[in-house]
Design a protein that fits this description.
Elements: H1 2-26, H2 37-55, H3 64-71, H4 73-104, H5 109-136
Length: 137
């Protein structure tokens, strides 16, 4: 499962990165109907690089010790607990930033509902996954 996600991250990252560079190289970024077309190039390049770096772990060859450590139940539990805490912290910070941006006047309706939708999808995914794992285990 992990390798499929990394392959998808790598593939999508290469597509976004290439698209950003192609729009810049061909000059199409000036024709895009967005307020700041110069930021399209920076945004797509940065997002592409981040996704590529996230997916590059697929090319590393794990040693025997790394495989044993990866399959160790204690390490799996530690990883799951740390991921759960990271999700909670990220979600809390995202809500606080959303709150601050609303009151500073930087938030438009489209951006507000987009971020709220992402938060809702994350919560729904958490509930469905917890329910599925409760029934499975």
């Amino acid at each position: 499962m992990r390798h499929k996600i990394q392959k998808a991250e790598l593939f999508i990252g290469v597509i976004i990165f290439s698209g950003g560079l192609l729009t810049y190289g061909s000059g199409l970024h000036r024709l895009l109907p967005v307020p700041r077309p110069d930021l399209v190039v920076y945004g797509t390049t940065l997002i592409g690089i981040i996704l590529i770096l996230m997916g590059c772990d697929i090319f590393s060859k794990p040693t025997k010790e790394m495989q044993i450590s990866e399959n160790d139940e204690r390490n799996i539990a530690i990883t799951n607990a740390s991921l759960a805490n990271a999700y909670k912290v990220t979600l809390t910070l995202l809500v606080l930033v959303l709150f601050a941006l609303i009151f500073m006047g930087y938030m438009s309706k489209v951006v507000f509902f987009s971020i709220t939708g992402v938060i809702a999808v994350g919560q729904i995914t958490w509930i469905i996954t917890a329910h599925y794992l409760d029934k499975k285990m």
